[in-house]
Amino acid sequence: MSAAPPTGAGSRPEPRSESRTAPLDGPRRAVAGLMPVWFWGVLAWIVVGRVLDPHPVVWFAGAAVLVGLSFVRPPRVERDPVEVASPLRGRWTVVNSPADQVPSHGIRAYGQTYAIDVLLPSPPGTPATVPWRGGFPRPETFPSFGRPVHAVADGTVVRVVDGRRDHRGRTSWPALAYLMTVEATRDLGGPSAVVGNHVVLDHGDGVFSLVAHLRRGSARVRPGQRVAAGDVLGEVGNSGNSSEPHLHVQLMDRPQPLRAAGIPFRWRDARVLPDVTDPSRATTVRTEITPGLPAAGQVVEM
């Protein structure tokens, strides 16, 4: 059963405590916002070392500075979880959840400290192991592909990227090895190369949402447009850094992912099904349930 989109007062993020500004907040965000520049600088410096043959001390000092700058991240901002609506309808499985670890994806870059990935549950009996054969299926073969993605709260569209291709899945060990090789270079292309097709909404009070890996050509909105909670923004796709079609959703305190700090959130209308899990999506599925914040392998009704 589909959950009806919230209306009225519940269509905006719930109030929360004020965030604390970390020391050197501005400079750190400015440096973090230039991450692709620093990575390109490292490559250029390697070429300089080969061509000009500078003194080893000078070369290593320059390399250390550039590498250090490329790993500067915005400060972590302490805020209470923001309550919003869920971005999908129906029954879904959660992976890479902040209920299991923070940062949920292992790093704080791109404002994804508290991000969640969601995809349709695997068929019963699907093994948890990754196969050695195949692993490059077309995105259209995945049931998550093309499902509507909804706004999590009222807001204004800030950014829409809609032209990046949906690549094939990466669902075997050889395919994942290829994925890791390719993804190691995506940071050079900036945020869109990593999050793929995406929409950023401004919900006011310093809260921005980002839905990522959308299907190419599926965007239903444009920058400057006002949207209501539950409005369709696009469709689930497989663009950017994605092993298979799924939705990546996060809240952040800036519209630019490289400069943003992630904001914790909960879904007000997502009900965890306590007797249903998807063990193929997590080696260990938690038994405890956090309202509105499902863990990896838990199945939710939205």
TrEMBL record:
TM ranges are: none
Return the annotated region ranges for Disordered.
1-26
Q: Give residue ranges for domain M23ase beta-sheet core.
A: 193-257
Which Pfam family name is an example for this entry? Answer: Peptidase_M23
Under which name does UniProt file this protein? M23ase beta-sheet core domain-containing protein
Q: What is the lineage of its organism?
A: Bacteria, Bacillati, Actinomycetota, Actinomycetes, Micrococcales
